[in-house]
Amino acid sequence: MTMQGPGVVLLDTMSVTVTPARSATSVADVRDSTRTLLEGLVHPIPAETADTVILVVSQLLTNALRHGGGTCTL
């Protein structure tokens, strides 16, 4: 966490632990969830940055499902 002044704290990191179902829509569902999370931020990020975050999350989940198993933390 980073203190930005009296009563204002910004998070430097955030993690989410998920156990995605291995289905044809797993990655698409996580992309949608990530987009919803980003759209709900108090301080929105630019659309291009959001698209990059969604792409990275999508690739990480794809690799986790393909090469790992079980729970993954992003």
UniProtKB/TrEMBL annotation:
Keywords: Kinase, Transferase. InterPro entries: HATPase_C_sf. GO terms for molecular function: kinase activity. The keyword Transferase applies. This is Signal transduction histidine kinase. The lineage of its organism: Bacteria, Bacillati, Actinomycetota, Actinomycetes, Kitasatosporales.
